[in-house]
Design brief:
This protein is mainly α. The protein has a single domain, classed as MFS general substrate transporter like domains (Growth Hormone, Chain: A, Up-down Bundle). The chain contains 23 helices and no strands. Helix content is about 75%, strand content about 0%. Helix 7 packs antiparallel against helix 10 and helix 7 runs antiparallel to helix 11. It is globular and about 65 Å long.
Length: about 450
């Protein structure tokens, strides 16, 4: 979110930080309501090809190492910057008549729904066929992310609206994560995993409906059409601009701090990513029932997530943007470490509920701060490509390393029982969050050459 006076990157003026009640009041606005639903559609496949998939596989007797390696299908989120320039400059086949952004949204959403239903039909015991389907679903999910993020930034009429849309997106996304972490466990306990995955595949129709109600960001389309007229994509100049332009503009805008920003972003959620593939297998091995995990996530987890998003926004207002990022970087690993205590305490439902609540609060708090920060760093004309680079940076280190999480637990189990191995693993995951805290502190220090962000141009004075 960027002020009309072009503030320094990462510094968000106070009037742009909406409170949770502002978002709820604004749901009646068509753009905000559409953004809320698109946020839900963007979040829906994330856990179904990640942590929740690990639960299904573990119940099917799949080895922890295989579960960890299977999480690498999520690397599509890391590599999406490779095809983001195409999304920026080329209309979707067939669906392109809906517009540059809406066409790709529809295509990606249909692919996600079909992929999830296909996974439901064949199941993890089908071997490589199942993982190819999971990979295709991940590719479509990453493509949807590219377009939804670009639409969110480009459709905003002013910086205040960008903040509102970002908050609505975060709420919708978090709601989807809770459904695919909590509700699906209750559903799977009642009707089984295949029927549950098929149900959520059909739920992608909600995203398709929101896309049809959305309107194209005309100002961004005009910029992209001007680029195409000046240097068509098929010309050497146009191809160079599509591929290298987003990077050149980003580093020119943010100067020597650009690389440090990217490193901080890629390490910010490292603790959370590292423990991700192991979380649900851990609950299974600990002896917690699916219904218990689902109920706790859907009740305490839900309200603590909402509280985290709301408090994150309020903290930004009262303490400033980078202080909020620092707090988020601190509380993530701080509230992940207690899962190690749970491993030693056994299946204590009360302790599990408290730890789950703290963890949900930390993820909600830190997530909304990082999304808003990254939104402030893009430039009109390269929105999809630059934001894809930033979100790829978020995913790069964590999604690359988390594939080894199962192997790490197996290695720690040598000479120990499984629960002590889990305890050591969670302690290590917490320690992995320290570098992000240090980098946030460095970036927050006053400096003379603060770069300028150019996400949203100011609205004309009336």
């Amino acid at each position: 979110m960027v002020g009309s006076a072009a503030p320094a990157a990462g510094v968000v003026p106070k009037h742009q930080r909406p409170k949770a009640k502002d978002v709820l009041r604004a749901i009646g606005r068509p753009k905000v309501a559409v953004m809320l639903v698109l946020g839900f559609a963007a979040g829906l496949p994330f856990m179904l090809i990640g942590n929740t998939l690990g639960y299904w596989m573990r119940e099917g007797g799949i080895d922890l190492k295989v579960i960890g390696f299977a999480s690498w299908v999520g690397l599509a989120y890391t590599l999406k910057f490779l095809w983001a320039p195409i999304i920026d400059r080329v209309s979707a086949p067939v669906a392109g008549r809906l517009g540059r952004r809406r066409g790709w949204m529809i295509l990606a959403q249909i692919g996600i729904g079909a992929g999830l239903i296909g996974m439901a039909l064949i199941g993890p015991k089908a071997g490589m066929g199942f993982f190819w389907l999971a990979g295709l679903t991940a590719f479509c999910a990453a493509t949807q992310d590219i377009v939804v993020d670009a639409w969110r930034i480009e459709i905003a009429d002013d910086p205040d609206e960008l903040g509102l849309l970002t908050a609505a997106y975060s709420l919708g996304y978090r709601a989807a994560l809770l459904c695919t972490e909590a509700l699906i466990l209750l559903l799977a306990a009642a009707v089984g995993w295949p029927a549950s995955y098929a149900t959520f595949g059909l739920m992608m129709a909600i995203g398709v409906g929101a896309t049809l109600f959305a309107r194209e960001p005309e100002r961004a389309d005009a910029v992209l059409e001007a680029k195409e007229r000046e240097a068509p994509l098929w010309t050497p100049r146009g191809l160079f601009d599509a591929i290298a332009g987003p990077f050149i503009t980003f580093f020119k805008t943010h100067g020597r701090w650009a690389l440090l920003m990217l490193v901080m972003i890629t390490l910010y959620h490292l603790s959370d990513y590292m423990r991700g593939p192991i979380s649900n297998p851990f609950y299974h091995d600990l002896g917690l029932a699916k219904t218990t995990v689902g109920i706790v996530r859907g009740s305490i987890g839900l309200w603590c997530t909402i509280a985290g998003v709301a408090v994150g926004g309020l903290t930004g207002v009262h303490l400033g943007y980078f202080r909020t990022l620092i707090i988020g970087a601190v509380i993530q690993p701080l509230f992940i470490a207690p899962f190690g205590l749970l491993a030693l305490a056994g299946p204590n439902t009360t302790l599990f509920s408290v730890i789950m609540g703290l963890d949900a609060f930390a993820i909600g708090f830190s997530g909304v701060a990082l999304v808003a920060y990254m939104s402030s760093l893009t430039s009109l004309g390269y929105t999809a490509s630059q934001y894809a680079v930033l979100t790829s940076a978020v995913n790069f280190t964590g999604k690359s390393l988390k594939g080894f999480s199962g192997a790490i637990v197996d290695g720690l189990q040598q000479g120990r029982d499984l629960m002590h191995a889990y305890a050591l693993f969670y302690a290590g995951a917490a320690l992995a969050g320290i570098p992000a805290v240090i980098l946030c502190v460095i970036l927050a220090r006053p400096r003379k050459d603060k770069p300028v962000a150019t996400t949203v141009e100011p609205a004309p004075a009336e």
